[in-house]
């Protein structure tokens, strides 16, 4: 079975228009792009696109044949549901409402949430309770819109494995709330990756493919910009495990552009490397 592989928007050169992103992703053989709405006000402004901008976006993806089924809503890192500041929490709720509205209109079916109760504040029992309250509300709104919310396994201890997500999932208890494992983050925290994937397989909406370097007593680890095959992720094991678990969902290659003229080459080489690993481990 040929894998459905997508590319993270931020892997592509920054200066591209959406039409150019679609064309490049198609040329590279990707099935989809994952949109980013992060801490950058320019990307957050997408949530306020007018009718013409939304129609242009939809036309671009249809004409290219490259889908945008998911959005990475990492803007909540700056405006988390768990913040002790009321105005910050209000912004978190507004971002969520706007993201659901945009997703519904342009065909995005899965919004990835950052698993941070807070990021730039100190975590506490209160921030965790506020976070759970916010996520519960967000899932209720997503259910009305028939849009999936999926939580990423993160680069901080708060949501560092699927077991921790399952503790939250038991509180939320909704078919519209899933998990979006990042195999790089899972590996960097010294998790038993096959066990964690097995625990969450019934609610995995997609898989992030990324290499990382592990946390140790002498290192904080490295959670991005680690070339595939040079980090701690055992991709053979990941693919074998998910094959055994009958995973048939999408795979998202998470990379970050350096805007140095070599991004397209790096993406093409990484995609070839991943596909080779998939063919040897997932199918055999």
Automatic annotation (TrEMBL):
Transmembrane segments: none annotated. Gene3D superfamilies: Divalent-metal-dependent TIM barrel enzymes (3.20.20.150). The keyword Metal-binding does not apply. InterPro entries: L-Ru-5P_3-Epase, Sugar_Epim/Isomerase, Xyl_isomerase-like_sf, Xyl_isomerase-like_TIM-brl. Residues 22-275 form the Xylose isomerase-like TIM barrel domain. It comes from Superficieibacter electus. Signal peptide: none annotated. GO terms for molecular function: intramolecular oxidoreductase activity, interconverting aldoses and ketoses; L-ribulose-5-phosphate 3-epimerase activity. GO terms for biological process: L-ascorbic acid metabolic process. Keywords: Isomerase. This is L-ribulose-5-phosphate 3-epimerase.
């Amino acid at each position: 079975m040929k894998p459905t592989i997508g590319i993270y928007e931020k892997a592509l050169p920054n200066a591209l228009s959406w039409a150019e992103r679609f064309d490049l992703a198609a040329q590279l053989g990707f099935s989809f792009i994952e949109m980013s709405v992060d801490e950058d006000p320019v990307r957050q402004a997408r949530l306020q696109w007018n009718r013409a901008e939304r129609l242009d976006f939809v036309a671009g993806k249809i004409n290219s044949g490259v889908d945008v089924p998911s959005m990475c809503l990492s803007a909540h890192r700056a405006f988390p549901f768990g913040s002790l500041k009321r105005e910050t929490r209000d912004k978190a709720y507004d971002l969520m409402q706007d993201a659901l509205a945009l997703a519904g209109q342009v065909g995005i079916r899965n919004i990835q949430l950052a698993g941070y109760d807070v990021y730039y504040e100190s975590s506490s029992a209160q921030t965790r309770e506020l976070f759970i309250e916010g996520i519960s509300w967000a899932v209720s709104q997503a259910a009305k819109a028939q849009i999936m919310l999926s939580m990423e396994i993160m680069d901080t201890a708060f949501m560092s494995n699927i077991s921790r997500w399952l503790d939250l999932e038991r509180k939320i208890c909704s078919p519209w709330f899933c998990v979006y494992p990042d195999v790089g983050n899972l590996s960097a925290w010294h998790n038993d990756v096959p066990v964690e994937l097995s625990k969450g397989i019934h609610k995995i909406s997609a898989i992030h493919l990324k290499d990382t370097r592990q946390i140790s007593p002498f290192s904080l680890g490295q959670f991005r910009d680690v070339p595939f095959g040079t980090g701690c992720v055992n991709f053979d094991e990941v693919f074998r495990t998910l094959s055994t678990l009958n995973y048939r969902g999408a795979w998202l290659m998470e990379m970050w552009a350096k805007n140095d003229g070599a991004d397209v080459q790096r993406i093409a080489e990484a995609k070839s490397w991943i596909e080779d690993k998939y063919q040897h481990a997932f199918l055999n």
